[in-house]
Input
Amino acid sequence: MELETINKLYLELSQIATAKTRRELELETLLAQAENASDQSKQIARLISENKEFLTLTMLLDEHPEDYQGPCFCKLCQSYSGD
Ligand SMILES: [Zn+2]
Output
């Protein structure tokens, strides 16, 4: 989900949640989930921007280590994202 979409959803849910009802408790759960997803997106965006040099280095690799799951521009990954 796009960060913008999550933020919009979060705002809408914040406005809906007013009374302490069962519905609100459900909304609070949704809010918490949206908040976590939003934090995750921010963390990922930050990590990517902080690791631009690292990403440049991955471009020199033919393949990334088998257990590496982060952002990567190795030749193998670029072959997946190509046309
Ligand atoms: Zn890779």
About this structure: Helices lie at 3-16, 22-50, 52-58, 75-81. Residues 17 and 24 are 6 Å apart (CA to CA). The radius of gyration is 19 Å. Residues 22-50 form the longest helix (29 residues).
